[in-house]
Design goal:
The chain is an alpha/beta fold. Among the domains are: 1-142, Glycosyltransferase, CATH 1.50.10; 527-669, Single-stranded right-handed beta-helix, Pectin lyase-like (Pectate Lyase C-like, 3 Solenoid), CATH 2.160.20.10. The protein is 24% helix and 20% strand. The longest helix has 21 residues, at 181-201. It starts with 27 loop residues before the first helix and ends in an 11-residue tail after the last helix.
């Protein structure tokens, strides 16, 4: 089962001090997926392989949920030998058989033991034998009475099998074992039959193709029930892997293209963006409760079970009675099952490139009679497409290839806005910098969620790369009441031009892994640390205004970053109340901040920089100036550990060097 928004870390303690080292692995699937090829030649791996061979039945498949790495007693080995000819409980559920075949392939790549090759080929033959004539696979083979005979997409069972058939049929070299030519041909035909079954089982609502169910009847192909709490329904989880499989087909047929397009549209239609799952854990890390919390602009999730006709999510306990919310079912099923998933996010992420590759128009770039979908207008008076900016962003396509422009007419938009990481290439363009105002009033005390409350105070949060903003005022309106972010940029290749960014403490937060950000012709004001964060950011021709005595910058530049904050041709101004302002102090000890050709008002303190009670930062931080002017530029009075750059050093501070990225000249677009 997948676990939503949870990173599962398997800690493997490998005590390999000799050939008889005690095995301490804790999870069989994780062992199989080890990337250390040499390990599969070790004595430890060979011992595990002996167990895998013992567990394999003569028919070729394996039972499920076996920790193959656990040592076996002689009595256990004898029992497994007797079971070799048993035809019960052999399955592909929970990854069984498919994962053991992968293990044998990895073993054979390092150790040419013919038993490993024979085991893999027996497993492959088992999968070929288990396939129905209509192309589907049951959960158990030989057939086990009950819902186990249904065509089973549940937990990716059929998709796992088809990926094996695809790799074998295409002779990709993924597996170290090369089947005979006649088996390769059988694998090709098996894959094609499986695709045909997938296309025939895609569910239609009022004649419109949607997605798939976890189980389909093996005769009628209709949606089917499984366990009491697994009623026939459209699946947000299983459908995702099916679509990714279809998208992997080279030169897809018209039927495959239609299936993928329809499923993508259904995923967009059924995504949930106002809920997040909250888990309560005990001291041992076990889930003791799950709750769904209403959250504004949450990352998209999908229900595991959706009504076949309405797409409405539903939930079931072991009594098989449908409920409308997770809270209505008992704790055993509520906490012991995955009811929501983010798996379709991968489909939406890859869809645009797949569509372009296969000549499919991508939503967000095709034209209509009235306008292009990649141009949206927001207006408070109702004359645009939306009256709220967030509503416009929520309709933008995921990971588009072209810029999506949201044009915002004049007005004061009292909104808290999030542009998530999948909404890349968004441009917010205001009608005018002075009169297009986006304002919200959160602050640290108001958020009150603990020590990290600052990061939730934003008026605008940008997580999507390749962001552009122009002709706007972005304001945190909470006043001088502690930390309160106006603009939070956690994105790469973000360009802000001709904008006002207004606030007090912590006005502008700049972050993101290896993020490069560019500010041009902007006005930025604040009180304490009002430009802070870890990004590499270039400010050109900007006015930086201090509202009271404090600090302009608080960089947290990573140690390996060449540049931090760079101000070029900027003007440092102040309110009358600000008469003693520092250029910066180090939020983290490797902070980097440089002022080049800047005009510094008299409010700048002679010493210029402060160490924030971190004497070690005086050696590790890099604070520098070059060719500045104004009453506040007093290079001879600066702290001894700051720098005045030489002309040959300043040659490195070009826009090309500072903002260098894999996307060339992104800052000039």
């Amino acid at each position: 089962m997948i676990q939503l928004k949870k990173t599962i870390v398997f800690i493997l303690f490998i005590a390999s001090f000799g050939t008889n080292a005690q095995n301490t692995f804790k999870n069989w699937p994780d062992i199989i997926r080890k990337n250390d090829a040499d390990w599969f030649a070790s004595a430890e791996a060979k011992n595990i392989a002996e167990n895998v061979l013992l567990y394999q039945r003569n028919i070729g498949g394996w039972p499920k949920n076996i920790q193959m790495q656990n040592p076996l007693s002689e009595t256990e080995k004898q029992k497994l030998t007797v079971l070799k000819s048993d035809l019960h409980e052999i399955t592909t559920d929970n990854g069984a058989t498919c994962q053991e075949m992968l293990f044998m392939s990895k073993m054979y790549a390092q150790v040419k033991d013919e038993r490993y090759k024979e085991s893999f080929l027996k497993g492959l033959n088992y999968l070929l034998e288990a396939q129905y004539n209509n192309g589907g696979w049951p959960q158990f083979y030989p057939l086990k009475k009950g819902y186990y005979t249904h065509i089973t997409y549940n937990d990716d069972s059929m998709v796992n099998i088809m990926n094996i058939m695809k790799k074998v049929g295409e002779e990709t070299g993924f597996f170290s074992i090369k089947p005979p030519k006649e088996i390769v041909e059988k694998a090709k035909k098996s894959f094609d039959k499986g695709i045909d079954c997938i296309l025939k089982t895609q569910y239609k609502q009022n004649g419109v193709l949607t997605a798939w169910c976890a189980q389909h009847d093996e005769v009628s192909l209709a949606p089917a029930n499984a366990r009491a709490f697994e009623l026939a329904s459209l699946s947000g989880y299983e459908s995702a892997k099916i679509v990714l499989l279809l998208m992997s087909v080279e030169k897809p047929s018209a039927e495959i293209i239609t299936a993928v397009k329809s499923a993508q549209a259904w995923f967009e239609k059924t995504k949930i963006t106002n809920l997040e799952e909250k888990r309560v854990l005990n001291d041992a890390g076990k889930i003791i409760d799950k709750k769904m919390i209403v959250t504004q602009n949450a990352a998209p999730i999908w229900a595991r079970f959706m009504d076949l006709e309405t797409n409405e999510p539903f939930f079931c306990d072991r009594d098989g009675i449908r409920k409308k919310s997770l809270e209505e079912i008992g704790s055993e099923r509520r906490n012991g099952y995955s009811w929501y998933t983010d798996a379709p996010k991968e489909v939406l992420k890859k869809y645009a490139s797949w569509a372009i590759k296969n000549g499919v128009k991508v939503s967000g770039t095709e034209t209509s009679d009235k306008k292009k979908d990649n141009s949206i207008t927001v207006a408070l008076d109702g004359s645009g497409d939306f009256t709220k900016i967030q509503d416009a962003i929520n309709t933008c396509p995921s990971f588009p290839y072209e810029k999506v422009t949201v044009f915002i007419k004049n007005g004061i938009y009292n909104e808290k806005i999030r542009i998530p990481e999948w909404n890349t290439h968004i441009a917010l363009i205001g009608e005018s910098k002075e009169n297009t105002i986006i304002s919200f009033d959160d602050n640290f005390a108001k958020i009150n969620t603990g020590r990290n409350s600052t990061f939730f105070t934003y008026t605008i949060l940008v997580e999507g790369d390749d962001f552009l903003a122009s002709n706007l005022t972005i304001k945190n309106a909470s006043g001088d009441n502690g930390q309160a972010i106006a603009l939070s940029l956690v994105a790469n290749r973000a360009k802000i031009s001709n904008c006002n960014i207004l606030g007090n403490q912590d006005t502008l937060y700049l972050s993101g892994k290896n993020a490069k950000q560019y500010f041009k012709d902007c006005y930025i004001e604040g009180t304490t640390d009002f430009i802070f964060g870890s990004a590499t950011a270039l400010f050109e021709n900007c006015e930086i205004k201090s509202l009271k005595n404090s600090y302009i910058t608080a960089a947290s530049t990573p140690q390996d970053s060449v540049f931090g904050f760079v101000f070029k041709d900027c003007k440092l101004t102040s309110d009358a109340a600000a008469t003693a302002v520092y250029l910066g102090r180090p939020w983290r000890i490797y902070a980097k901040t440089v002022y080049i050709n800047c005009d510094m008002g008299k409010h700048i303190r002679p010493e210029g920089w402060e160490n924030w009670s971190k004497p070690e930062a005086e050696k590790s931080a890099f604070y520098a100036e070059y060719n500045c002017k104004g009453e506040g530029f007093q290079p001879t009075k600066r702290v001894s550990w700051s720098h005045q750059l030489k002309k040959k050093e300043i040659a490195n501070y070009t826009i090309e060097n500072i903002l260098k990225d894999s996307v060339e000249n992104w800052y000039s677009k």
